[in-house]
Amino acid sequence: MKRNSIFLLAIAVFSVLSFLAPSWSYAQQTLPKTDVEQLKKIASEATDIETLIVLATPRSLSQARSRTKASPYLSEPNKAALDAIAKSIGLILYGPKNAPFEIPVLAKGADQKYITCLAGLSDASAGKSPKIFENGSCSLMGELISALPFFRDSRNEIRAGALVAISRLEDLGGISTVPPLVRGQIALEAKQYTEAASQFQKALELDALSEKPACGLARAWIALGEPGKAKQVLDPIISIALAESAKEISAKDGYNEDPSSNKVASSGGGYIETTEAEQNILSADLKSLYGLALYHLNNILDAEPWLKAALKEDASRTDLLVPLAHAALQRRDYASAWKNLEGASKIASKDRNWLILKSQYALENSRQVDAERFARTAVSQYPQDPVALAQLVRAIQESTDAQRHKEATDLAKKVLDITKNEPPNLTPLEQAWRKQAEDKAFQFLVMENYNNQDWIMAAKYLQEAGGVPLDKEMVATILRKSGNVQEALQFALSWYIQEPTSEKAVEAYLRSLAMATGATLASAAPTRDVPTAILPGMSGLEMRQEEGANLALLDIVLKFIAAPFSKELKSFLYYMSATLQSDENKAIDQLKDALAERADNVEALVSLASIYLNRYNRQSDKSDTINRDKAVLYLEQAKSLRPNDDEIKARINQLEAELGYSSR
Fold it and tell me: What is the pTM of this model?
């Protein structure tokens, strides 16, 4: 009976279904086309948004969120879920490490795959490998999220998992900035800077204004010694960010022209001004890298405000302290220099630049012992580094110890040997360091040979030095005393034309003229390569020792005597005038005038001794010793002044020999 009842019920249901079947089939056949299109659009919209999320650049994530919110096809739960996914990925990749993660309440009821992604993001944001994807099928967003813990945790297992995830992501055909970001960071930490640059460049190609790969690429370029390329990478990002900031400021209260603004190079190579408020929109990492790029481009003072701003925002950036100390030393801000050098001491005590700057700081603050100590440490750490060697030359050159001067001479020669063959690909900063080292070596060697009165060697180094800044009086003396008449005259004339009120220039010019005309000065060296050109200021005068030349030169000297010069120069002018006189009595009078202006004019004293000795030698009656006694008197006065000039000392010895005695 029961079986019969079931059978009858089955027949009844079948009859109903049979009855309804035609109408159901009809309804299926007449489903509106717009519903089919709508389903396609929903699927297409979701796919496009997911593709943008997987790309994971700041721009693509922003676009994904915008399209999600504006979509007329997606359900509200799915919108909330997709927006949360895009936002969370952006925070993990580009936001602060402590950014919180939340699953929005509105995402309840979203598709299961989105809920799964949100659950995975919860782990990833905490630096954990997402467990929820372990047993499921592979998907683009799943593999992307599985790689994200890399940006929150540096454990080896996390990194290994990230590498596996990005490999699967690429195998699935996914296009994303995450794989090159991961590989670039790993290469950077392994100091494989070329590979790092290649990976970050790939990431940057997906979004040219993405700060994270730009900073990674800039860091790699700086490590590779290419600060210009680093700056070129960052310029567009900074320019656009500042332009947008300027628009916002202008919209609020007009453009704020802060007088303490900083210069920023635009992508066109020029400079735009930035205020501190505008700089605040940039990350500390970007500011530090831009500052370091400028620093290594040898724009030290331009780099300083960027480095200061980065350090203010992130006090852990102790790597910025040495460049900041360098800038402070350039500005002679010794308090800031000391503070930054001390702050960097724990991490940079063996760094060449830190040691050099410590030595320079001590040198400029009269701490000679410390200056030498830090310079010697630098040389012990970097024995073939010309910058370290030159700093030691600076530190010991003021010593009065002959042995140290010999050491400094050997060091300076070593600097010149090393800098002859400059390594390729040096940064502008390093080129500047090495050029300063070379200049210092030349300056020391020229001055050392000048002090030792080795005029030939001094002239040799002077010629090799080229345009190295040197004391003009020293240069004029070296050229003259080494017998380089033409060069001496040209240099002295150029100096006098540039500085007609400089008494040293006047003296150098007149001494060179006297040398060229063959006039006899107490400290004149024998001449060579005497030119036959026309002397400036002495029209038509040939370079021969003759009375006409002396008279023409005497006329120039007398004009200078009439000018309002100091007693020191007046004394020299009277002395020089005396050497040009053919009348011995006039010469004696002018030499006495020279001593009246300056009693320690040793050249005038030697000349008077010479004149009176010559008078005595011409006497037939040698019993009259008045002239001889005067010669001895002036010679004794000259010797009492202890002249350093070897030529004057030789002349004194010669006069003593002629007098037949050795004075006390």
Answer: 0.80
